[in-house]
Amino acid sequence: MKLLDLMENISYRLAGNYSDGLLNKEIERVTTDPRQADGKTLFVCARFATGDGHNNVNAAYAAGCRVFLAERSLPSLPDGAAVLLVEKTKPLLGELAACCYGHPGRALTVFGITGSTGKSAVAHTVTALLRRAGHSVASLTTDGIDLNGALRPCGSVVPNGADIQTILKEFLNTGVEFAVLEFSAYMLENHAHTAIPFTALLLTNFDPNHIGNGLYPDPGVYRAIKASLFEGGAPFLVLPANFADFSVDVSGARALHFGEDGDLQALNVQSICEKRGFGTRFELALANGEKARVSLPVPGDYAVQNALAAASLALIAGLSLNEIATGLADAKPCGRLECVGAYEDRYIYVDSAYTAEDLAQALKALSPYTKGRLSVLLGSVGGRARWRRAALGRAAAEYADYVYLTADDPDCEDPVSICEDMMQEMEGRDRCCVIPDRREAIGRAVLEMRPGDVLLLAGKGGERFQLIRGKKEAFDEREIVKEALLAI
Questions:
Q1: Higher pLDDT, 467 or 105
Q2: Are residues 24 and 116 in the same domain?
Q3: What CATH number does the domain containing 252 carry?
Q4: One domain, residues 112 and 86
Q5: Are 120 and 145 in contact (CB under 8 A)?
Q6: What is the DSSP string of 24-69?
Q7: How far apart are CA 92 and CA 195, in angstroms?
Q8: Which of 412, 407, 409 is nearest to 466 (CA)?
């Protein structure tokens, strides 16, 4: 569409040395990435944690872009470029991209998911349930884009408002009916959810203690960021039952509550142990008295809550209770307490836990099933998040019987140094060893297992790579576990 039409409802001031015809230029893409810029692109200069887009305008210009949306003048631009000045660019990203692409979300049923934990697990589960029922579903989570069952990593940059509209356009063009989108606090803070016509919005839970060290010093700020997703007027809201720590305006929407005393509950919950791994059996019950038996292949109370949340969205999508119960028996969230090896009463799990809270939760979920030694293998990312390390080590030592410290995306930092940081506050260091090479560490941890033992490989989850010296190297823990078991 023409630039003037795209900017019709937005107040802006023009700058730059350009010809009048440039304002009638056809725009086919809205982006913040200079690598995607060309002669039919509106390049938006936005400030993110990864950098200030105002510093990338010359790269976009060199790629052929001549139209820029910015918060300040861009004196370094050569002649022939038009600069549209606005007060804030980030809140406009989604709106501009949606308009440019013909509002792709309007032709989809879009589910939005946020919360402190469990977002990806719920997204993966509801995607699996809908696909099993014959629907075409695509999802966006921290694991990447799942389109037609093939997972594609998003890369190192968290999708912004324009990126998500591009993703929705791709979903629509490939025949998708349902789009399931996960929103972190960072994405919400940067307005990634704007201009999306949600059918249903879901809150998994809310824990103000889950936020990063110093990221949101005031829990009220974190709460307001999470609550912002629910301000768009979706017709359905899905919320935890008996939940007093998070206020959402449900007027004008149908609210569905899951959990104890909610519209959808889990009754008569029992832990089970099968050859394929640990799980949970319960009755999935509606408030009207309808029930269905579920055998969930994931252990722990949090797994049950995530299953109820996913089931709530599936109900909104039109699935029957029996369809949901049958689907949950096969729904194993990738990288979330996923059993990747079972051999002669030895069980090996992977989980994406990379914070102390997540790690403690995963180990506590596995503990009741462990007849022998509960071990954990973990590392911490290099070059950032150093504040996590001591807490991770402390949680590992508290909830596991033995700890293998190793690499986890060390990038350019020495894994040994990272492991030393993790050991700062660990008690019982005699129950810990450091093996910098993660493949070697997995092999040793598997070899040292005895009948009744459980091993948790933490941090990587569903990832299939290791970040080493700036490069992503192929690293699939599932295959490594298979090789290690064959060597026993």
A1: 105
A2: no
A3: 3.40.1190.10
A4: no
A5: no
A6: G-B--EEES-GGG--TTEEEE--EETTEEGGGGHHHHHHTT--EEE
A7: 9
A8: 409
Q: Quick one: 110 and 66 in the same domain?
A: no
Residue 343 shares a structural domain with residue 482: yes
In terms of domains, do 86 and 118 share one? no
Q: For 196, left (φ over 0), alpha (ψ -120 to 50), or beta?
A: beta
| Joined tokens for residue 11 | 């107040």
**328 and 294 Cβ atoms separated by less than 8 Å:** yes
The answer to whether the CB of 408 falls within 8 A of the CB of 376 is: no
What's the Cα-to-Cα distance from 277 to each of 297, 350, 371, rounded to whole Å?
7, 12, 14
Q: 39-98: per-residue pLDDT in tens?
A: 999 999 999 988 999 999 999 999 999 999 999 999 999 999 999 999 999 999 999 999
Q: What does pTM read for this prediction? A: 0.90
CATH at residue 23: 3.40.1390.10
Out of 305, 328, 351, a domain closes at: 328
Q: Residue 84 pairs with which residues in a beta bridge?
A: 14, 69
The parent domain of residue 407 ranges over 338-486
Return left, alpha or beta for 411; rule: phi > 0 is left, psi -120 to 50 is alpha, else beta.
Answer: left
Q: Domain check: are 276 and 387 in the same one?
A: no
Which bin fits 57, alpha (ψ -120 to 50), beta or left (φ > 0)? alpha
CB 112, CB 200: distance < 8 Å: yes
If asked whether residues 371 and 249 sit together in one domain, one would say no
Residue type, 133: A
Mean pLDDT of 145-155: 85
